[in-house]
Specification:
By secondary structure, the protein is an alpha/beta fold. The protein is 36% helix and 24% strand. It has 10 helices and 17 strands. The longest helix is centred in the first third of the chain and has 15 residues.
């Protein structure tokens, strides 16, 4: 049956399967559609050129364009347990004595929550929500960048914030993103926030740590922060698709999967 399907219909079937599964392998598609591996690879290359998927080692992942920005309260309700476990795992990477950039977002909020046992740690952040709820914890010095308050994302933006960032050098950055994919890299729906995070990365002399639940992989928003290869560590959740590990580790990115409750 599969051998007689015209290319357009076969490619439509491939997209149907990838939308169902998020990620597909060449071997599985070859068996399902009863065509050669070479034919599937050709189809995937054509679909990648159209921007609807990204090729991975041995398969492909769906490219999902995020059409609108979710406000902070909406984001906070998406995958809350995964974000909490990611926050705990990422906070464990911050050592006593570190100076760390942490950007805005509901996942980075969770990172700051779990810093209560650190000593002599200095955090520079534009994440107003996290600072407001942090309280007084003697081992952590919290420095706000200052800047224009942006209600939708509960953070600080603008030239004032960037100028503050540009006067600081840190040992680590922990950054949240709205989209993470191989081709487009790390993205944000807000150009001002993308600019601040980019400046934070530029002023970091140590590891670049990205915190992202599994649903962020393959998503693309409007403004590029940086190429994926700029990341040293991705802290994600237990639902991370292991088929992506090879491609990420080929970029020298370490994957840390947090443990759910």
């Amino acid at each position: 049956m599969g051998l007689n399907i015209i290319p357009a219909a076969r490619q439509s079937k491939i997209m149907e399967l990838i939308k169902q599964n998020g990620l597909v392998t060449v071997e599985a598609l070859s068996k399902s559609l009863e065509v050669s591996v070479i034919t599937i690879r050709r189809d995937l290359s054509l679909l990648e050129e159209k921007g609807v998927l990204e090729r991975t080692h041995g398969g492909a992942i769906l490219t999902q364009k995020v059409e609108r920005e979710f406000n902070y309260s909406e984001k906070d309700r998406i995958n809350p347990q995964q974000k909490e476990s990611i926050g705990r795992a990422a906070a464990a990477l911050i050592e006593d004595g570190d100076t760390v950039f942490i950007n805005s977002g509901s996942t980075t909020y969770q990172v700051i929550r779990f810093l209560e046992d650190r000593k002599d740690v200095r955090v520079i952040t534009n994440n107003v929500a996290a600072v407001a709820d942090f309280g007084g914890r003697s081992g952590v010095e919290m420095i706000l960048t200052g800047g224009l308050y942006r209600y939708q994302s509960n953070c600080l933006i603008g030239d004032f914030a960037i100028n503050t960032v540009n006067q600081i050098i840190t040992s680590k950055i922990i950054m949240g993103v709205d989209g993470l994919c191989f081709d487009k890299g790390l993205t944000s729906p807000v150009y001002q926030e993308a600019g601040i995070t980019r400046s934070m990365m530029d002023r970091t002399q140590g590891p670049v740590i990205c915190v992202a639940d599994a649903s962020k992989l393959g998503k693309v928003t409007n403004f590029v922060i940086a190429p994926l290869a700029k990341v040293d560590i991705i802290v994600t959740d237990e639902f991370f698709d292991e088929d992506l590990r090879y491609d990420l580790e080929a970029l020298n990115i370490e994957i840390i999967k947090s443990e759910g409750k």
